[in-house]
Amino acid sequence: MRRVISLLLENEAGALSRVAGLFSARGYNIESLTVAPTDDATLSHMTIVTYGSDLVIEQITKQLNKLIDVVRLIDLTEGAHIEREMLLAKVALAKLPLSELKVLVELFKGCIIDICQSNCTVEITGTGQRLDAFVEACGRTQIIELVRSGVSGITRGTRQSGELNRQT
Amino acid sequence: MKLTGAQIVLACLKDEGVEFLFGYPGGAALHIYDAVYQQDQVRHILVRHEQGATHAADGFARVTGKPGVVLVTSGPGVTNTVTGIATAYMDSIPMVVLTAQVPTHLIGDDAFQEVDTVGITRPCVKHNFLVKDVNDLAMTIKKAFYIATTGRPGPVVVDIPKDVTAAQAEYVYPKSIEMRSYAPVQKGHTKQISRAVDLLLQAERPVIYTGGGVVQGNAALELCELVRELQYPCTNTLMGLGAFPASDPLFIGMLGMHGTYEANMVMYECDVMLAVGARFDDRVTGDLKLFSPRSRIIHVDVDPSSIGKNVGVEVPIVGEAAPVLREMIALVRQRKDKLVSGAIDAWWNTINAWRGIDCLDYDASDELIKPQYVVQKLFEITKGEAFVASDVGQHQMWAAQYYGFDQPRRWVNSGGLGTMGFGLPAAMGIQLAYPDMPVACITGEASIMMCIQELSTCKQYDLPIKVIALNNRYMGMVRQWQEFFYESRYSHSYMDALPDFVRLAESFGHVGMRIDKPGDVEGALKEAFDSDDRLVFMDFITDQTENVYPMIAAGAGHNEMHLKPSRRGEIHEERELA
């Protein structure tokens, strides 16, 4: 099963390699991993998308929790949550005229952020499935270059995943 | 007052109460070694190879329960410690390894004797640190000791660049420490413990199966109390031997690949299993599909990730063994009337019938020295009170099977990683911790060669270790597997061109003995243990073809054990060994 795990960890050198090393050493799957500092400079936030049987997922969360640098772990997929991913795509204008592309981008609530004679660069944010749908709609052959950010996630409502010592 | 980083390192060790520092100097460690020279509270033991330093610190930690401390230089100093660190990691041994590093401004430049210590050791440490600022040094060392010794213990590496050891800072050693990202559980969940006790009391065919966690967690007394209160059978893993007295009739021996028939059959047939500080390792469980098919399992472990990793568990209890067992004992006493009357007697009748098989019986010989016989004689002569360090292989299994340990922390071996070369340096750590106690190193002629250089360290520090080499001129366990599973094609398992161990021992300044007749075994052992101020290297020329029995082939079930060939067919043996 696919899981989105949200991790808060000490912003120490090597913390990322501990997490990445754990996945490779124990043969766990990793679909995407994003990491960035938080507004507390001593902490980083990581979102990991992984998949495996319930037993494997249980081990993944236990092993991650065992890492000394991990301050808090939440399996976002255990409850209501929001996932977002960003896509940057360079689309060729040869077969897909700008007017058509603009309609498509509006439909996906994205925007055109760069343009030149032969292509333009589009930014779309949404769930992974939504980004897949955009790529399909454009037609894969029209896309010259594609960059995706990987998933970031947050809990819905009053459930908390992000910051430490901040009560809602 | 300001101290240099090097002085801070030594001050921290002093404040932690460290008695021994096992190490080897080198360029990046020179400031620290200068500080070692200028103090006399922490005793430095100079080994002959950094691997020896880690194993010696490890042996010290296993028998004392205190963290073993190592100091090495950068680069090859560090890479040589990796085997020892991994050995300690696999067996959850508390250890702090201080490694010198090239100066901070050279890190990443492929400087002389530079390796990425934090990167290389990361997969085999509980945690590691690189200290870049002398002001963080004391706090980091405090954290290292705290992490190494709490929760599930393990090795922690602190990498200290040379310029940090020269820089100065105000020295304050923190008295206590709290980490927001690390808070090991101590007490178990009360409701779960209560459920566990109810399940235990309902059992008709119970077993208590315990591992290294009971030894390392200082819970042997509690274990004895619980087992005796319940009168249930108790089995120990290779790492857990001594936690329950081998001489107690409630002890059914070691379990697993070379465990006793009765222990493995009890595991197979039981209806309730209490596992404490054990991790259901593959050498213990065999085929997981055939593992204890009818039992309901209670698992007590300080590490949540050990629970449910290999085997499904009905009652998981995360907590330290000692406090959890204490709570269990209290509840068992309150609820003892719920015990199923009569059931346990029937169970013991079955177990005693299995015991009657006498699975550790071996063919005695008047001509060839049987390795089992040497261990039995060692047990008799030392009255079962020696510290026994072993290397890895057949001799390790025979030591575990035939030396009955009645106390915890007497049996020291590399169970998880299976590191050949562990025995002799580990024995050094033990002998330093207990200078007046008999320390035996049971080894083989192959294993001993892997850290033979430490005989020199033994001379320097006058360590009167008794080395018992069971010399069968083979890597015995490899040979045994090749005999069973590779149609006796003994590929590279033969130890050719062996040294004359008697003269080798003598050249290091020790006493050497060669014993090749069964009639001389007892006399030689007596003579060796009578000379309490000399290291005696006993080279026992043993039967080359002896195998370790009983045996469960890798991947077979507990009910598929094999006895020695002359007794095949006496028990149900489903799968052929070869």
Describe the structure.
The complex is a heterodimer of chains A (168) and B (578). Chain A is an alpha+beta fold and 168 residues long. Chain A folds into two domains: 2-79, 2-Layer Sandwich (Alpha-Beta Plaits); 82-152, Alpha-Beta Plaits, CATH 3.30.70. Chain A contains four helices and nine strands. Chain A has helices at 15-25, 54-66, 98-107, 128-138; strands spanning 2-10, 32-37, 43-51, 70-75, 81-92, 111-115, 119-126, 143-148, 152-155. In chain A, strand 6 and strand 7 (119-126) form a beta hairpin. The longest helix of chain A is centred in the middle third of the chain and has 13 residues, at 54-66. Chain B is of the alpha/beta class. Chain B has three domains: 2-170, 3-Layer(aba) Sandwich (Rossmann fold); 190-355, Rossmann fold; 371-541, Rossmann fold (3-Layer(aba) Sandwich), CATH 3.40.50. Chain B is 36% helix and 16% strand. Chain B is built from 21 helices and 20 strands. In chain B, the strands form four sheets. Chain B has a six-stranded parallel beta sheet with strand order 3-2-4-5-7-6, with helices on both faces. Chain B has a six-stranded parallel beta sheet with strand order 11-10-9-12-13-14, sandwiched between helices. In chain B, helix 21 links the parallel strand 19 and strand 20. In chain B, helix 3 (50-64) packs parallel to helix 4 (76-90), helix 3 crosses helix 17 and helix 11 runs antiparallel to helix 14 (343-355). Chain B starts with a strand and ends in a 37-residue tail after the last strand. The mean pLDDT of chain B is 96. The chains are: A alpha+beta (168), B alpha/beta (578).
